[in-house]
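Sample entry (147 residues):
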Amino acid sequence: MAFEKAVLLWAEGMGWRLERTGPLRRGIWPVARLEFLREGVLTPENWDHFLSSCSLFESFVPGRREASSHKGIAVKFYQVEKPAWGFAQIAHTGPHEWVAYCRSRAGWDQLPAESEQAAFARIGLEFLPPEERCMHDMNKPDGGSHA
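Predicted structure, serialized as tokens:
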């Protein structure tokens, strides 16, 4: 999608690490909005400034890290410090039931976990690609891990 690429290029120009997350990252299309995870935490005021001054966005929701393109494409930004990146990417990629399962496992939020692979290791699971994360995998005896 051209708009998604434009947002990623904008972030790159800002010197940000920004990656897609949410349903789009799981390969689901269409989506209600584009979701991105940013490494590093900005104040609400800084977000408001960046979103209001970016020509990609027609409007934004003050204090919420949400914006809309000129064509009405909704965008939501999440943010996290690098040591928690892996857990944040799992949490924001979803789906909700899969995240709840991961959060219930021993080791959730034990830092550092700077990658999803590290976060999966912390909770005792092998890495599972986003497009394969669903509830039926949790019913396997190994907790859904794939060799």
